[in-house]
Structure formats: structure tokens, C-alpha cells
Amino acid sequence: MTVITNTLIVATIGIGLIFTVVTVIGVIRLPDVYTRAHAASKSATLGVLSILVGVFFHFWLNEGHFSIKILLGILFLFITAPIGGHLMSRAAYMSGVKPTKHTVGDDLAEVVEQAKKEKL
Fold first, then answer.
1. d(CA 41, CA 23)
2. CA 18 to chain centre
3. In CA terms, which of 3, 12, 40, 41 is 20 to 30 Å from 80?
4. Distance CA 13, CA 36 (A)
5. In whole angstroms, what is the distance from residue 47 CA to residue 50 CA?
6. Domain count, the chain
7. Which domain range does residue 9 map to?
8. pTM for the whole thing?
């Protein structure tokens, strides 16, 4: 049982480490604020969640301590991290940050223009 438990813990923490490295590469290499925010919010969320799941399994299966605090941390992070990334991208868009020249479409432009017209 110990080998299976430790394998599960190492696998989840290893997956979290891989997603975290992907986040770092994405933030460094991607061309504009929108793609960087996407990389940071999605893969960092999965990376930290996987690491927290590994920590939860360690305390629960090896130490015999069922931690509600870690589960609440996982839930809180799962809900707030993608929303934070979305809000940062929306704030960058509203403040006029231009996307890269490789961007194909801008679906939000119509909605913003319509909202401006309705406000007047």
C-alpha cells in the first residue's frame, strides 16, 4: 500500500511541476498580454491544483490526517484563478492594450462598441 500511495503522491506533484514549468515557458515566450494571461491562469491553476492534491494525499494517506483546509484551498483556487486571469485580460483590453499582429479576430470589439452606444 505504501508504494502505491507514494507513487500517487509523486505522480500528482510531478504533474503539477510539469504544468508549472509550462506556465513559466508560456509567460516568457508568448507574444502578448492576452496569451500570457491565458498561459498563466490555466496551466498555473492546474499545476498548483495538482501539487495541492499531492499534498492532500500525503497528509491523508501517509500521515492519517484528513485536511479540510487543503480541500478548501483547492476549491478556492479552482474558482478564483481562472476568474482572475479573465479579469486581468478584460482590464488590459479595456485599457487599450493591442493584441499581437497574429491575432485573427476580435469578438469583443462589437460588444464594447454596442455597450458604449447604449451608455450614451
1. 8
2. 13
3. 12
4. 23
5. 5
6. 1
7. 2-119
8. 0.82
Q: How far apart are the first and last CA of the chain?
A: 67
Q: Give the DSSP H or E segment for 45.
A: helix 33-57
Look at the chain and count its residues.
Answer: 120
- d(C-alpha 26, C-alpha 21), whole Å: 9
Residue type at 63 in one-letter notation: E
Please tell me the predicted confidence (pLDDT) of residue 11.
97
Q: pLDDT tens per residue, the chain (120 residues)?
A: 789 999 999 999 999 999 999 999 999 999 999 999 988 888 999 999 999 999 999 999 999 999 999 999 999 999 999 899 999 999 999 898 888 888 888 888 888 888 888 876
**20 contacts 48 by C-beta, under 8 angstroms:** yes
With CA atoms as reference, report the closest residue to 21 among 45, 43, 49: 43
Q: Collapsing DSSP states into helix, strand and coil, what is residue 98?
A: coil
